[in-house]
């Protein structure tokens, strides 16, 4: 995978983590146990330190970076959706940052929060635990329900299981020329988008 040393600092990846070969890690990057780093994520620790604590995931095309002397941290079981940008901020334990959201310098997202897709969290903002945050700039919308927090935790477990699946079975291959008869599908009983879970009364 593209890992790069700079000024004598190399990325650190725990053996139980999965970092896709097409992700890029530079310098002072610490990837903890059971983490998942998706294709095309960029973790650039050439100024400040980047830390992924145990069990968190950072998805496709996410960017993590920070100013000199800062730490950009995703807490335990943190969940960062596709295309999000985290710069010199801290994401609390079991929080979710939605797709294409931006969290700026010195912002702190509290434990078990959900930052909505495309939200812009301004520099220096501190968000209390268990809040739904949305908008540009982002504001606290309301408290999260127990069901919503449970839905988030279930989604993160799915990514922790993906880490195990990737370590066990992901490998390069040649594509087939056509779909084989009776082609199987991946099955994830009970894993549904939040909007569907609410319709079903699960969140």
What does this structure look like?
There is one protein chain. The protein has helices at residues 146-169, 194-199, and strands spanning 3-4, 12-13, 18-19, 24-31, 36-37, 42-52, 57-58, 63-65, 71-74, 79-80, 85-87, 90-91, 96-97, 102-103, 108-109, 114-115, 120-121, 126-127, 131-134, 139-143. The chain is globular and about 55 Å long. Helices cover 15% and strands 32% of the residues. The mean pLDDT is 95. The longest helix has 24 residues, at 146-169. Strand 19 (131-134) and strand 20 (139-143) form a beta hairpin. It is built from two helices and 20 strands. The strands form two sheets. Strands 1, 2, 4, 6, 8, 9, 11, 12, 14, 15, 17 and 18 form a twelve-stranded parallel β-sheet that branches. The protein has an eight-stranded mixed β-sheet with strand order 3-5-7-10-13-16-19-20. The protein is of the alpha/beta class and 203 residues long. Its EC number is 3.1.2.-. InterPro entries: Hexapep, PaaY, Transf_Hexapept/Carb_Anhydrase, Trimer_LpxA-like_sf. GO terms for molecular function: hydrolase activity. It is an enzyme of class 3 (hydrolase). Keywords: Hydrolase.
